[in-house]
Amino acid sequence: MKTLVRWLLLSAALLLVAHLYGGVRVDSFGYAMLAAFLIGLLNTLVRPLLVLLTLPVTVLTLGLFLFVINALMFWAAASMLDGFHVVGFGAALIGSVLYSLCGVVIDAAVERLFGGPVPV
Fold it and tell me: Does the pTM exceed 0.85?
């Protein structure tokens, strides 16, 4: 139940990001749900490999390169879906930061509501 609520809230957060920032566009809530699922899937499967491969750059930039990796995951999800559009890398960077901030708030709310950490 926790995972379903978190997914729905992250989908709504993606619509909020699209509403607040013009560089990101989502055509419908259905596409927002697909995009949230795909972003989560990419963050689970691809992101750890990218973090490992770019560890020296991440250390040199004091962790700031992780923002680039998040933006790449956001941009990759947009390139795979027709109803989710990101204008360019700069828009992906800003969109991913906004989406991540929403995710932190959602995780805290879901944890408080249901108790315990949120399963990923």
Answer: yes
| Tens of pLDDT, residues 40-99 | 999 999 999 999 999 999 999 999 999 999 999 999 999 999 999 999 999 999 999 999
| Integer Cα distance of 103 and 3 in angstroms | 13
| Alpha-carbon distances, residue 7 vs 22, 57, 68, 92 (angstroms) | 23, 31, 23, 20
Cβ density class 31-66: b for 16+ within 10 Å, e for less: bbbbbbebbbebbeeebeebeeebeeebeeeeeebb
